[in-house]
Specification:
mainly alpha; two-stranded antiparallel sheet
C-alpha cells in the first residue's frame, strides 16, 4: 500500500482522537453527567464506552496492541461505573488511539490478517473505518447530551475543536 495513503489514513484517526480530546476539554461543569435524554448514557459513559470499544476490538483482532491499555469502566458491586476524571480519560484515549494506529499500520505492512477467534476484518482499513464511524456517532451523542443540558459550543470554539481539524479554509 502507498505509504502516503497509509499515513493519511492514520492521520485521519489521530485527528478524530484529537476531536474527542478537544470535546472532553471543552466540557462545562457537570458535563460528565449530561445525557441526551432520560435513560441515555451519560457523557462519562460515552467516553468510557469509546475506550472500551477500542480495547474490545483490539483484543479480538490484534491483541498484542491491547496489552497494558487502560480500562475506563470499573466494577462496583453489580454496576460498571464510568471514569469521570478528564485527565485519566484523555490519557487512556491517547494511549488507545496510538495502539489502534500501530495495529493498523502493522497489519498493513506485514499483511497479517486482522482476525481473532471471534472477529475478523477483511482489511485493516475497515477496522480503522469502524473505529472512526463508531467514535463519530458518540461525538454526536455527546454534543446532543450537552445541548440537552443547555451547553452549546460556540461556532468559533467548535470550528477550532472539531471542523478545523479536518480542513483548512481561507476566506
Amino acid at each position: 500500500m502507498n505509504d502516503s495513503i497509509v499515513q493519511a489514513l492514520l492521520d485521519s484517526y489521530k485527528r478524530n482522537n484529537a476531536i474527542l480530546i478537544s470535546l472532553l476539554q471543552a466540557l462545562p461543569e457537570g458535563g460528565m453527567e449530561a445525557k441526551a435524554m432520560q435513560g441515555s448514557p451519560s457523557v462519562a459513559e460515552q467516553f468510557s464506552h469509546i475506550q472500551q470499544t477500542r480495547l474490545f476490538w483490539l483484543n479480538q483482532v490484534a491483541p498484542e496492541f491491547a496489552a497494558g491499555l487502560t480500562q475506563l469502566f470499573r466494577k462496583d458491586g453489580e454496576d460498571w461505573l464510568p471514569e469521570r476524571d478528564p485527565t485519566r480519560i484523555e490519557r487512556a484515549l491517547n494511549q488507545s488511539a496510538r495502539a489502534v494506529c500501530e495495529a493498523v499500520q502493522d497489519r498493513l505492512y506485514t499483511g497479517q490478517a486482522m482476525q481473532g477467534k471471534n472477529a475478523r476484518y477483511d482489511h485493516p482499513v475497515l477496522f480503522l473505518q469502524h473505529m472512526l464511524w463508531h467514535e463519530g456517532y458518540h461525538v454526536g451523542q455527546i454534543k446532543l447530551a450537552l445541548k440537552a443540558t443547555g451547553f452549546i459550543m460556540g461556532e468559533e470554539a467548535e470550528e477550532k475543536a472539531i471542523w478545523g481539524r479536518w480542513r483548512t479554509e481561507v476566506w
